[in-house]
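Components:
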Amino acid sequence: MTRLLNGISWVGLAVVGLAVSACGKTDTKPEATTDQKPATPAKADDSTRFKGQTLNLLTWEGYADPKFTKGFEEKYGVTVKGTYFGSSDELVAKLKSSPGVYDVVSPSSDVAYSLVQGGLIEPIDTSKISSFNDLAKEIRDMDDAKKGDKLYGIPFTWGPDYLIYDANVVKEEPKSWKVFYDPQYKGKVSLWDDISNIYLVGQIMGLDKDKPEALYNMTEEQLAEAKKKLVELKPQVRKYWATAGELNDLFKNKEVVLAVGWPLTVGTLNKEGMNLKGVVPEEGATGWIDRLMIPSSSKNKELATLYLDYVTQPKAQALVMDATGGYCVANSKASEHLAEDYKKSPCVTEAANYFKRLNFWRYAKDRKRYNEVWNEIKSAQ
Amino acid sequence: MTKSPPSPRRRALLFLVLPTSLWLLFFLVLPYCGLLVQSFLGTNEFGDVVFSPTLDPWKSFFKKSLYTGTLFYTFKIAAIVTFASVAFSVPLAYFIAFKLTRGKQLVYTLVVVPLWVSYIVRAYAWKIILGREGILNTFLQWTGITHAPVEAFLYSQWAIVIGLVHIYTPFVLMPVYTAFENIPRPLIEASKDLGAGRLTTFLRVVLPLALPGVIAGSTFAFVLTLGDFLGPLLLGGTDTMMISNIVQNLFGTSNDRPLGSVVGMVMLAIVLLVLEATARAEKSFASLESGRGRFGGTA
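Structure:
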């Protein structure tokens, strides 16, 4: 026992020291640096001005692909370096723990709001974004990227969390999410390991019929009801998938025939000979918007603005869709530059319909509670 | 009062102890203290930890069955894994130590070789074996034992247990084997000379002498399973979340670092207690040669 006691007294000693230093550290909240001077207008010698500099992106996987960054690098003689993150929350953690490192980030609409409100993001001078007016209005002007009358982010890519089914097994197109509860598909369903399942059940309950934001502000009673429904669904579920790659494996190994997922899965697996289809059921589906933002701690804001201008132009956006295997892109004019395959993508043919029917992720004020409920569902035996 | 300068011996001792102490301080004690302090703090609406001392994270932990229930479930899995690893290791180690005359080293190496393969690769191998269209199901249907694929193999509690037992059995086998090897052979002969049968000799002479090895191995399996989070992630089903998955979720997803720190501190306390308890148990079963302990000396 002496070993243990020794250890504890050590701990006690260090606690005092740490408490003092922690005091100083946590008291200084990051302050918004909105009073900074706006970037000077682009000049004619832009092509040589930035030569040799490096632009650091902190993005979702695939969002720093040389397929579309190369043109920018050549134009300005710079290097674009990408660091990937695996979840919205990881982005927040990385950005907060290393200020000054990243010049462009790509948060989704669920955390964009808190980054902007928390003062971590620089407002965007939209006059410098040449394609600004071609970016889909429906997702461009949403609240999550706004503070006051300023815009803090522009849409880059977007897509649905829709219902994917193996059309070789499920012969009839499912009309409702309720197909997940169908006894004949017991043990053949896969849900994403994420709080978005709570939004999904909220849609089945019809919460967002009148107010889309209701999904993200559920009351404790509504959460309890959603929890009950998701626990009931557990025997139907084979596995909660954590990455898009895992969902691919589940479909390929015939473990599941129904799932919530992204167009990426349908595109990837159909290329390998499967017959998957994606559908937005009658209750609707949620969707995501990945935005491009410039952290207020960035040291290369001018170059970052030029990058935002570059990657939202039609040609670059078409390359983005190609590089990501078919993610929907924000610039509608991109479709002119797409390969035939991608022109048939629902992102292009059904975009207007999607914007109407998708309930895009928003900031959930009590995200912590949503996460806790999701964990309670997972731990229910 | 005058202070005499430290003697050269003391200075040398300081020189020896200082680097390790600093190492421990910076890489073990301070990080854990950070966790401890953080576990008493609150967060603001953006998830930043703010300096406002509170007991709330601790209250949430003990009040909500999510945390205590998951902890209990983790214990259950750890106990099953430990028991199964020991059940595999003891006969195998016994066989290698006492029955094999040739090829001892080879068999031992074969058992330990899986340790060289990454955990994740082994978990994926189990997916290939246990899946709906996996090797096991294909075989069972080919032989006609089952007619439809058995789904309970993969993505279940048992898949986790199988995967973890595969991973931790070598950890248990090594100390058990060493303990068997160190048993003086004359003792076994003496037991037989005094009329004890094989089973009695094993139960009353061999096993007690090997107990420190079994305890050391069990501790490995138990403590490592307690902290495991890849097993549930890769092989587990929809209701097999373990405590480390919650820690990962609290730090990585919900950004609730105070509560995550609470779970971390509770885990640390449990592991320290287990280590302390097993260290004592090992001592009380200490080897014969030392002349101390329950089975040594003159008792």
